[in-house]
Amino acid sequence: PTPQVHGFFSKLEPVLRTLFDYYSMIEVEPSSYDFKPHEHKKPQPTMSVEEWCGFLMDVGLLPLEGTQQHMGHQDGNGSPMLDLIPARLVFMWSQTFVSDELRRRSKMTSATYEDFLEALTRLCTRITLPSPELLKQYKAKSAKIFFDDVDAGKHDGAVMLRQTNSGMTWQKEEETDEPIIESLEVLVGLILDRLDADANGKVSKQELEKKRQARAKRREEFASLRVNDKTSLSRQSSRKSSRDQSRRNTPQATPRG
Does 215 fall in a domain? Predict the structure, then answer.
Protein backbone atom coordinates (compact mmCIF):
# COMPACT_ATOMS: atom_id res chain seq x y z
CA PRO A 1 0.00 0.00 0.00
CA THR A 2 0.96 3.63 -0.41
CA PRO A 3 2.22 5.52 2.66
CA GLN A 4 -1.14 7.31 2.87
CA VAL A 5 -3.12 4.07 2.82
CA HIS A 6 -0.74 2.44 5.29
CA GLY A 7 -1.03 5.39 7.65
CA PHE A 8 -4.82 5.38 7.36
CA PHE A 9 -5.10 1.69 8.22
CA SER A 10 -2.57 2.03 11.04
CA LYS A 11 -4.62 4.81 12.63
CA LEU A 12 -7.79 2.70 12.50
CA GLU A 13 -6.18 -0.63 13.34
CA PRO A 14 -7.94 -1.11 16.73
CA VAL A 15 -11.45 -0.81 15.30
CA LEU A 16 -10.61 -2.65 12.07
CA ARG A 17 -9.10 -5.47 14.13
CA THR A 18 -12.32 -5.62 16.13
CA LEU A 19 -14.33 -6.02 12.91
CA PHE A 20 -12.00 -8.63 11.48
CA ASP A 21 -11.72 -10.65 14.68
CA TYR A 22 -15.49 -10.71 15.17
CA TYR A 23 -16.46 -11.74 11.66
CA SER A 24 -13.58 -14.19 11.29
CA MET A 25 -14.68 -16.10 14.40
CA ILE A 26 -18.27 -16.77 13.29
CA GLU A 27 -17.31 -20.08 11.71
CA VAL A 28 -14.98 -21.59 14.27
CA GLU A 29 -13.40 -24.59 12.57
CA PRO A 30 -9.81 -25.89 12.66
CA SER A 31 -9.39 -24.99 8.99
CA SER A 32 -10.21 -21.36 9.78
CA TYR A 33 -7.05 -20.96 11.83
CA ASP A 34 -3.70 -20.00 10.38
CA PHE A 35 -1.20 -22.08 12.33
CA LYS A 36 0.87 -25.24 12.16
CA PRO A 37 0.23 -28.08 14.66
CA HIS A 38 3.85 -28.22 15.82
CA GLU A 39 3.99 -24.49 16.53
CA HIS A 40 3.01 -23.48 20.05
CA LYS A 41 1.50 -20.19 19.03
CA LYS A 42 -1.93 -18.72 19.49
CA PRO A 43 -3.90 -19.53 16.32
CA GLN A 44 -4.62 -16.51 14.17
CA PRO A 45 -8.23 -16.21 12.98
CA THR A 46 -8.91 -16.01 9.27
CA MET A 47 -12.03 -14.89 7.44
CA SER A 48 -13.93 -17.15 5.06
CA VAL A 49 -15.73 -15.85 1.99
CA GLU A 50 -19.07 -16.54 3.72
CA GLU A 51 -17.98 -14.43 6.68
CA TRP A 52 -16.81 -11.70 4.31
CA CYS A 53 -20.20 -11.67 2.60
CA GLY A 54 -21.94 -11.61 5.98
CA PHE A 55 -19.87 -8.57 6.91
CA LEU A 56 -20.89 -6.82 3.67
CA MET A 57 -24.55 -7.60 4.35
CA ASP A 58 -24.34 -6.12 7.84
CA VAL A 59 -22.94 -2.85 6.49
CA GLY A 60 -25.50 -2.67 3.68
CA LEU A 61 -23.09 -3.27 0.80
CA LEU A 62 -24.51 -6.65 -0.23
CA PRO A 63 -28.16 -7.75 -0.45
CA LEU A 64 -29.33 -10.29 2.10
CA GLU A 65 -28.97 -13.76 0.61
CA GLY A 66 -32.15 -14.95 -1.02
CA THR A 67 -33.53 -11.46 -1.56
CA GLN A 68 -33.71 -9.65 -4.87
CA GLN A 69 -30.26 -9.17 -6.33
CA HIS A 70 -29.35 -5.57 -7.10
CA MET A 71 -27.73 -5.26 -10.50
CA GLY A 72 -25.19 -2.49 -10.90
CA HIS A 73 -23.52 -0.42 -8.24
CA GLN A 74 -26.56 1.12 -6.57
CA ASP A 75 -29.83 -0.17 -5.22
CA GLY A 76 -33.11 1.55 -5.96
CA ASN A 77 -32.34 4.43 -3.61
CA GLY A 78 -28.80 5.01 -4.77
CA SER A 79 -26.99 3.36 -1.88
CA PRO A 80 -23.87 1.53 -3.10
CA MET A 81 -24.38 -2.21 -3.25
CA LEU A 82 -22.55 -5.15 -4.76
CA ASP A 83 -23.83 -8.29 -6.41
CA LEU A 84 -22.74 -11.58 -4.87
CA ILE A 85 -20.28 -12.55 -7.61
CA PRO A 86 -18.28 -9.27 -7.54
CA ALA A 87 -18.21 -9.47 -3.74
CA ARG A 88 -16.69 -12.94 -3.92
CA LEU A 89 -14.23 -11.84 -6.61
CA VAL A 90 -13.02 -8.96 -4.43
CA PHE A 91 -12.38 -11.49 -1.67
CA MET A 92 -10.56 -13.88 -4.01
CA TRP A 93 -8.39 -11.19 -5.62
CA SER A 94 -7.30 -10.00 -2.18
CA GLN A 95 -5.75 -13.33 -1.23
CA THR A 96 -2.02 -13.52 -0.62
CA PHE A 97 -0.41 -15.46 -3.46
CA VAL A 98 0.47 -19.06 -2.62
CA SER A 99 2.38 -21.48 -4.82
CA ASP A 100 1.02 -24.82 -3.64
CA GLU A 101 -2.77 -24.97 -4.03
CA LEU A 102 -3.12 -28.40 -2.43
CA ARG A 103 -0.91 -27.99 0.61
CA ARG A 104 -2.09 -24.45 1.33
CA ARG A 105 -5.76 -24.74 0.50
CA SER A 106 -6.87 -23.09 3.76
CA LYS A 107 -4.79 -20.02 2.94
CA MET A 108 -6.45 -19.76 -0.46
CA THR A 109 -9.99 -20.03 0.89
CA SER A 110 -9.62 -17.65 3.82
CA ALA A 111 -8.33 -14.14 4.41
CA THR A 112 -5.85 -12.86 6.96
CA TYR A 113 -6.17 -9.41 8.50
CA GLU A 114 -3.85 -8.02 5.81
CA ASP A 115 -6.01 -9.64 3.11
CA PHE A 116 -9.06 -8.05 4.73
CA LEU A 117 -7.47 -4.61 4.40
CA GLU A 118 -6.65 -5.37 0.77
CA ALA A 119 -10.27 -6.39 0.18
CA LEU A 120 -11.52 -3.12 1.66
CA THR A 121 -9.21 -1.23 -0.69
CA ARG A 122 -10.36 -3.21 -3.71
CA LEU A 123 -13.96 -2.64 -2.65
CA CYS A 124 -13.48 1.04 -3.46
CA THR A 125 -13.08 0.15 -7.13
CA ARG A 126 -16.29 -1.91 -7.29
CA ILE A 127 -18.83 0.54 -5.89
CA THR A 128 -19.48 4.20 -6.61
CA LEU A 129 -19.05 6.45 -3.61
CA PRO A 130 -19.55 10.20 -3.27
CA SER A 131 -16.41 12.27 -3.45
CA PRO A 132 -15.58 14.78 -0.69
CA GLU A 133 -16.68 17.51 -3.11
CA LEU A 134 -20.07 15.87 -3.63
CA LEU A 135 -20.55 15.43 0.11
CA LYS A 136 -19.79 19.11 0.58
CA GLN A 137 -22.20 20.06 -2.21
CA TYR A 138 -25.06 18.28 -0.45
CA LYS A 139 -23.95 19.41 3.01
CA ALA A 140 -23.42 15.85 4.18
CA LYS A 141 -20.80 15.34 6.86
CA SER A 142 -20.43 11.67 5.93
CA ALA A 143 -21.39 9.13 3.28
CA LYS A 144 -23.90 7.60 5.69
CA ILE A 145 -25.69 10.94 6.09
CA PHE A 146 -25.55 11.42 2.31
CA PHE A 147 -27.28 8.09 1.62
CA ASP A 148 -29.67 8.46 4.56
CA ASP A 149 -30.81 11.78 3.08
CA VAL A 150 -31.22 10.12 -0.32
CA ASP A 151 -33.40 7.42 1.23
CA ALA A 152 -35.45 10.11 2.98
CA GLY A 153 -35.98 11.93 -0.32
CA LYS A 154 -34.19 15.06 0.86
CA HIS A 155 -32.09 15.45 -2.29
CA ASP A 156 -31.24 13.88 -5.64
CA GLY A 157 -27.63 13.16 -4.78
CA ALA A 158 -27.89 9.58 -6.04
CA VAL A 159 -28.74 10.84 -9.52
CA MET A 160 -25.82 13.24 -9.44
CA LEU A 161 -23.57 10.44 -8.19
CA ARG A 162 -24.48 8.22 -11.14
CA GLN A 163 -24.06 11.08 -13.61
CA THR A 164 -20.70 12.26 -12.35
CA ASN A 165 -19.40 8.81 -11.38
CA SER A 166 -17.13 10.74 -9.06
CA GLY A 167 -15.85 7.73 -7.14
CA MET A 168 -12.90 5.49 -7.84
CA THR A 169 -13.50 2.55 -10.20
CA TRP A 170 -11.25 -0.32 -11.22
CA GLN A 171 -11.05 1.18 -14.73
CA LYS A 172 -9.99 4.55 -13.32
CA GLU A 173 -7.49 2.88 -11.02
CA GLU A 174 -5.91 1.10 -14.00
CA GLU A 175 -5.87 4.15 -16.28
CA THR A 176 -4.84 6.96 -13.92
CA ASP A 177 -2.50 7.69 -11.05
CA GLU A 178 -5.31 9.18 -8.96
CA PRO A 179 -4.82 8.09 -5.33
CA ILE A 180 -7.42 5.78 -3.85
CA ILE A 181 -7.11 7.16 -0.34
CA GLU A 182 -10.09 9.55 -0.65
CA SER A 183 -12.45 6.77 -1.73
CA LEU A 184 -11.05 4.50 0.97
CA GLU A 185 -11.67 7.09 3.66
CA VAL A 186 -15.27 7.54 2.48
CA LEU A 187 -15.88 3.78 2.32
CA VAL A 188 -14.43 2.94 5.73
CA GLY A 189 -16.26 5.90 7.22
CA LEU A 190 -19.53 4.58 5.76
CA ILE A 191 -18.85 1.10 7.15
CA LEU A 192 -18.00 2.30 10.64
CA ASP A 193 -20.94 4.72 10.79
CA ARG A 194 -23.38 1.97 9.79
CA LEU A 195 -22.01 -0.39 12.43
CA ASP A 196 -21.94 2.24 15.17
CA ALA A 197 -25.54 1.81 16.33
CA ASP A 198 -24.95 3.92 19.43
CA ALA A 199 -23.44 6.75 17.37
CA ASN A 200 -20.72 7.21 19.97
CA GLY A 201 -17.81 6.99 17.57
CA LYS A 202 -16.92 3.43 18.61
CA VAL A 203 -17.82 -0.03 17.33
CA SER A 204 -18.15 -2.73 19.97
CA LYS A 205 -18.61 -6.48 19.65
CA GLN A 206 -22.04 -6.05 21.23
CA GLU A 207 -23.07 -3.76 18.37
CA LEU A 208 -21.72 -6.23 15.83
CA GLU A 209 -23.67 -9.04 17.49
CA LYS A 210 -26.87 -6.97 17.29
CA LYS A 211 -26.23 -6.40 13.58
CA ARG A 212 -25.76 -10.09 13.00
CA GLN A 213 -28.91 -10.95 14.96
CA ALA A 214 -30.89 -8.36 12.99
CA ARG A 215 -29.65 -9.94 9.75
CA ALA A 216 -30.76 -13.38 10.94
CA LYS A 217 -34.18 -11.98 11.83
CA ARG A 218 -34.57 -10.35 8.40
CA ARG A 219 -33.60 -13.61 6.75
CA GLU A 220 -36.26 -15.47 8.74
CA GLU A 221 -38.88 -12.86 7.89
CA PHE A 222 -38.02 -13.03 4.21
CA ALA A 223 -38.10 -16.84 4.25
CA SER A 224 -41.53 -16.69 5.90
CA LEU A 225 -42.79 -14.31 3.22
CA ARG A 226 -41.52 -16.62 0.49
CA VAL A 227 -43.29 -19.59 2.08
CA ASN A 228 -46.52 -17.59 2.32
CA ASP A 229 -46.19 -16.48 -1.30
CA LYS A 230 -45.62 -20.05 -2.47
CA THR A 231 -48.60 -21.25 -0.42
CA SER A 232 -50.79 -18.52 -1.90
CA LEU A 233 -49.68 -19.33 -5.44
CA SER A 234 -50.28 -23.03 -4.81
CA ARG A 235 -53.81 -22.35 -3.59
CA GLN A 236 -54.55 -20.13 -6.57
CA SER A 237 -53.24 -22.79 -8.92
CA SER A 238 -55.31 -25.45 -7.16
CA ARG A 239 -58.49 -23.37 -7.42
CA LYS A 240 -57.86 -22.69 -11.10
CA SER A 241 -57.27 -26.38 -11.73
CA SER A 242 -60.52 -27.25 -9.95
CA ARG A 243 -62.47 -24.74 -12.03
CA ASP A 244 -60.96 -26.08 -15.24
CA GLN A 245 -61.79 -29.64 -14.23
CA SER A 246 -65.34 -28.61 -13.35
CA ARG A 247 -65.81 -27.02 -16.77
CA ARG A 248 -64.58 -30.17 -18.49
CA ASN A 249 -66.98 -32.34 -16.48
CA THR A 250 -70.03 -30.14 -17.11
CA PRO A 251 -72.21 -31.63 -19.91
CA GLN A 252 -72.51 -29.34 -22.89
CA ALA A 253 -76.01 -28.63 -24.23
CA THR A 254 -76.65 -30.30 -27.58
CA PRO A 255 -77.93 -27.82 -30.16
CA ARG A 256 -81.31 -28.68 -31.70
CA GLY A 257 -81.32 -29.52 -35.36
Answer: no
